Amino acid sequence: MSKIILTGDRPTGRLHIGHYVGSLRRRVELQESGLFDKIFIMIADAQALTDNADNPEKVRQNIIEVALDYMSCGLDPDKSILFIQSQVSELTELTFFYQNLVTVQRLQRNPTVKAELQWRGFSESTDGNDNKAGTPVGFFCYPISQAADITAFKATTVPVGEDQEPMIEQTREIVRKFNATYGPTLVEPEIMLPDNAACLRLPGTDGKAKMSKSLGNCIYLSDSEEEVRAKVKGMYTDPLHLQVSDPGHVEGNTVFTYLDAFCKEEHFARFGECFHGRKVRFDFHSLDEVKAQYRAGGLGDMMIKSFLFEVLNDTLAPIRARRKELEQDLPYVYEVLRKGSEIARAEAAQTLAEVKRAMRINYFDPGVLEELIAQQQERFQ
Ligand code: TRP
Fold first, then answer.
1. pLDDT tens, 341-367?
2. Buried b (16+ CB within 10 A) or exposed e, 277-299
3. Is the CB of residue 341 below 6 angstroms from any atom belonging to ligand 1?
4. Ligand 1 atom closest to Cα of 149?
5. Domains annotated on the chain, with CATH
6. Does residue 264 surpass a pLDDT of 90?
7. Which label site among 194, 261, 342, 351 has the fewest CB atoms less than 10 Å from its CB?
């Protein structure tokens, strides 16, 4: 069986380093591994509209931001198919058929949907006349549409963050239900989670559990060097570590979480003597050594922040440079998306045809109509 990846992001903002360690970096590695027959990377604009119906302009503006972030991280249109969800209308058709296989109660139990309903303020509207907005049906059903995204491409592997686990589980249920009801047609996908705990959920620069635009605690892939430097400088560390000589805590210390996610062994040799042109003594050979010294006392926050900045910048500088180039060639980027959407559409159309055949709603397919007419004629003889 072919190995196929599908994954994607909602275009509601620029991508940040949480996206990078949680998913983007892995996608590029998978792309380069040569282990996959096809890789589909989707900009989920239709899903973004499920809770931004009144703001399509925001979604439209962010499509190019996400595409630039993708390509500057190394997603290569010659190896991966980058496309826009709304341009593959077959996905909505699949969604419509899958909706019959899922109960309202099951959707209500989906933990990610549950949490999102809470923080988006889509609280229950009882009579539609109170001041509560209520839940848009499209939003409520987005896990079903996500099952369509995945199955349309017969994806075997879905690399995503932890918050997407309930979506993949629901997709698997839909696949099993479909295949049991209509005959084996769809492929059951596997989730692929980040393998490093720090990458599973990178906290915001303020130490809050999640990076989010509304909290203003993100480091974006497109941030300038100066922006990154300032954000690192202001980062949350250990509030009890007041003097350099004080013993410090590593657990729950955002600087160390970021180091866990970004630091490589080579960084110690490269940055050990010099942070951004300034001579320093940062005489460590591994992150464990740095942590031990911080715990013991005698290692200042400014020091570890300067090191973190170098480590981050080592990853971000090439991404930033590539983005600058791509920003100068937007017709090319849009052409990549247009072509990718065309290819994606052809793939999804094939799956949709198989789905309709399995459901026996392919009345006008070659051979089917003749058979149907013969069958009905017998009834009306
Ligand atoms: N729900 C994903 C997010 O919020 C985006 C998405 C839509 C997706 N369809 C998908 C991810 C299919 C993986 C597979 O980022």
1. 999 999 999 999 999 999 999 999 999
2. eeeeebebeebeebbebbeeeeb
3. no
4. 12
5. 4-201+330-371 (3.40.50.620), 225-326 (1.10.240.10)
6. yes
7. 342
